[in-house]
Amino acid sequence: MQLRHLEAKGSIALYFHCSIPLFLVALIMARLSTDPLIIGRVIGDVLDSFIPTIKMTVTYNKKQVYNGHEFFPSTVSTRPRVEIGGADMRSFYTLIMTDPDVPGPSDPYLREHLHWMVTDIPGTTNASFGNVLVSYEVPKPNIGIHRFVFVLLKQKRRQCVTPPSSRDHFNTRKFSAENDLGLPVAAVYFNSQRETAARRR
Ligand SMILES: *[C@@H]1O[C@H](CO)[C@@H](O)[C@H](O)[C@H]1NC(C)=O
């Protein structure tokens, strides 16, 4: 009786001892399995895993972009509003919009296609305060459902980003490394596919 009691006490102690790291592991696993950027394979195909630290809101005509939501090409025909957080206006950010699913998601041999790039966006402002390095190109997905990814990167200083040579075969990771931009601080993506008469009704 006495021994069993002690054993029970011991296992409770063991439980508490282990429950903290187990709890953390469970939390990380839960985060991995529910992070829409991982499920949507944006992390993997375009970005390395990162911890979001800056708030970014992308809005097309009052419709906010949430991960994995579908937007009609007609809805995204003009550039969105992109508002960013951050502590103050002395930090500068680069915004990239890229399509990793060119020409189509089943064989994206032309990955990535750059749609938009704005640099020197001061923290707490919006993309219209930045410097457009590559103008907004309207998404026109022809084959399958494409992901259009907005990535926000923190610059080390102002005017440190060299314009990319081409929209085609763009590589967000490589570009970030070459321009000393480090890991993303925010990202969000939407899906879009060709608008047919049938789908539009
Ligand atoms: C950016 O912010 C300014 C000042 O708040 C505002 O006047 C402007 O309309 C905004 N532009 C966009 C494209 O969101």
Structure write-up:
With 201 residues, the chain is an alpha+beta fold. Helix content is 26%, strand content 26%. The chain has five helices and nine strands. β6 (113-122) and β7 (131-134) form a beta hairpin. It is globular, with a radius of gyration of 22 Å. The termini are far apart. The model has no long low-confidence stretch (mean pLDDT 89). Residues 81, 126, 128 line the site of 2-acetamido-2-deoxy-beta-D-glucopyranose. One of its GO terms (cellular component) is cytoplasm. Belongs to the phosphatidylethanolamine-binding protein family. The chain crosses the membrane at residues 12-32. InterPro entries: PEBP (IPR008914), PEBP-like_sf (IPR036610), PEBP_euk (IPR035810), Phosphatidylethanolamine-bd_CS (IPR001858).
Main sheet: strand order: 3-9-8-5-6-7
Q: Count the beta strands.
A: 9
Parts with pLDDT < 50 across at least 5 consecutive residues: none
Mean pLDDT: 89
Count every helix, treating DSSP H or I runs of 4 or more residues as helices.
5
> Which class of secondary structure composition applies to the elements?
alpha+beta
Largest sheet: 6 strands, mixed
Give the overall shape, derived from the CA principal axes: globular
Cα end-to-end separation: 75 Å
Estimated helix fraction = 25-40%
Radius of gyration over all CA atoms, rounded: 22 Å
Order of helices and strands: HHHEEEEEEEEHEH
Bound molecules: 2-acetamido-2-deoxy-beta-D-glucopyranose
Share of β-strand residues: 25-35%
Transmembrane segments: 12-32
Family: Belongs to the phosphatidylethanolamine-binding protein family.
Pfam families: PBP
Keywords: Membrane, Transmembrane, Transmembrane helix
